[in-house]
Amino acid sequence: MEELLRTNDITLIPRARALLEDEGIDSFELDVNMSVLEGSIGILPRRLMVRTDDLSDAVRILRMNGVSFERG
Predict the structure, then answer these.
(1) Cβ-contact 29, 10 below 8 angstroms
(2) pLDDT tens profile 20-56
(3) What is the rounded distance in angstroms from the CA atom of residue 62 to the CA atom of residue 40?
(4) How far, in Å, CA of 31 to CA of 23, rounded?
(5) Which of 4, 26, 18 is nearest to 70 (CA)?
(6) Could you tell me which residues come within 8 angstroms of residue 32 by beta carbon, excluding any fewer than 6 positions away?
(7) Quick one: fold of 2-64?
(8) Are 49 and 2 in contact (CB under 8 A)?
(9) Rounded mean pLDDT of 46-68?
(10) Segment (H or E) for 27
(11) Is 4 exposed, middle or buried (0-12, 13-18, 19+ CB in 10 A)?
(12) Strand order in 27-30's β-sheet?
């Protein structure tokens, strides 16, 4: 698994996951529980992971759909 993106924006990961799912790319969100522990105030970023083989396609799909993000 490779880190596709890391963000504090709570709307970005669901959008990215939906776009990837539409293209048949599986993703997995990490650090969800850490976010809950810190009180959901957005200090700790969440990470979205994809398979290594899907990484370049995932980046391309998100960028083609106007999703702005920096890779972790």
Answers:
(1) no
(2) 999 999 999 998 776 555 555 667 888 999 999 999 9
(3) 25
(4) 24
(5) 4
(6) 46
(7) Alpha-Beta Plaits (3.30.70)
(8) yes
(9) 95
(10) strand 27-30
(11) buried
(12) 2-7, 46-50, 27-30
| Total number of residues shown for the chain | 72
**pLDDT surpassing 90 at residue 10:** no
Query: Are 28 and 13 in contact, with CB atoms under 8 Å apart?
Result: no
Q: Find out whether 6 and 47 touch, Cβ atoms under 8 Å.
A: yes
Q: How far is CA 41 from CA 21, 49, 70, in A?
A: 28, 22, 21
Residue indicated by tokens 């994809």: 50
If you average pLDDT over residues 9-20, what whole number do you get? Answer: 94
pLDDT over 70 (residue 69): yes
Place of tokens 């957005």: 42
